[in-house]
Amino acid sequence: MNYTEMESYLKAISDHNRMLILKYLSKESLCICEFTELLDMTQPAVSQHMRKLKTAELVTEEKRGRWTIWSLNVRHVLYPMLIHLLSLLPEPEVTVESLMAEGKKVVCE
Amino acid sequence: MNYTEMESYLKAISDHNRMLILKYLSKESLCICEFTELLDMTQPAVSQHMRKLKTAELVTEEKRGRWTIWSLNVRHVLYPMLIHLLSLLPEPEVTVESLMAEGKKVVCE
DNA sequence: CCATTATATAAGTGATTGCTTATTTAATCA
DNA sequence: TGATTAAATAAGCAATCACTTATATAATGG
Fold first, then answer.
1. Which pLDDT tens digit goes with each residue over A9-68?
2. What stretch of H or E contains B2?
3. Is residue A47's beta carbon less than 7 angstroms from any atom in nucleic acid strand D?
C-alpha cells in the first residue's frame, strides 16, 4: 500500500457523516433511502458520500431492483483496523428501530 | 472518543506529506529544519503541518534552545494503530543519511 | 548590542470539500 | 403505457485545504 492509496483511504473515512455511515454498516447492510432518514440528509448528499466510500473501496454495492444495498467491504486490507476504529465510537442515537418506533418509513418497500 | 475527535485525528493523518512526517518520526525525533530538507518543503509549510499534527495530539514538541524537537505522542490512544498504519507504508527514499551523504546540512547546529 | 538562525504567524491564492437544488436515469407497478 | 420511486449526476457555492511570500518572534553567538 503506497502513500497515495493510504491517503485516499483515510480521506474517505475522515468525515463525520461517513464515519456514521460506516458505523451503521458495521451492524447491517443498508440502502441510501435508509441513510437519508438515519442521517437526516438529502438523497444526493448521501449518494455522493457512498460514491466516495466506494471509490476508496471501503464499501460494496449490490443492486436489488430499485434499491442499492450497501455493505462494508470485508475484503479490504484495512477492514480489521476499520472495525477497531468504529468500535471506539459511540452508538448513534438514531437507529432503524428508533425511527420505526416514531412511525417513520425507514425500510425500503 | 467521539466522532469529532476521531474526525480531526484522521484528517490530520490524511495527507501525503504529514504521513511522511509521521513515518520519519516513527524512526527518530526530528526538528523542522530537518523536515524542510527531507520533504523538500518550505519552512512555513512544514511548520503549519506540525501545528496540525500537534492540534490533533499526534505529536509532541520539546523546545531546545533555537530548535524544536518533534516526537510521536506515544501516549495517544490511537498510537498503536498509527504505528500499524505507518508500518504498511514504504520507507521514504530520502533519509537523513542519504542527505548527509550528498553533503547537505541536515543536522541542526 | 547586533547579526544570524530557527520557528511561528499572517495574508493571499488556487484547488478541493460537502453541501444545495435541479435534472436525469432506471426500475417497478397500476 | 404512464406515474411513481430510488438513485445518480450536474452545476453552483461557501468553507476549508495546502501551499506561497512576507514578516514577526525568539534564541544564540560574535
1. 999 999 999 999 999 999 999 999 999 999 999 999 999 999 999 999 999 999 998 899
2. none
3. yes
Q: Does domain A3-101 have CATH number 1.10.10.10?
A: yes
HSE-CB of B22 using CA atoms within 13 angstroms: 33
Distance CA B69, CA A67 (A): 54
Element (H, E) at B34: helix B32-38
Q: Is B103 left (phi over 0), alpha (psi -120 to 50) or beta?
A: left
* Residues of B in Cβ contact (< 8 Å) with A11: 14
Nucleotide D22, nearest residue via CA and C1'? B44
For residues B66 and B17, give the distance between their C-alpha atoms in angstroms, rounded to a whole number. 24
Write down the domain spans for chain A: 3-101
Largest CA-CA distance found in chain A, in angstroms, rounded: 47
Cα–Cα distances in Å, from B81 out to B25, B41, B58?
15, 27, 12
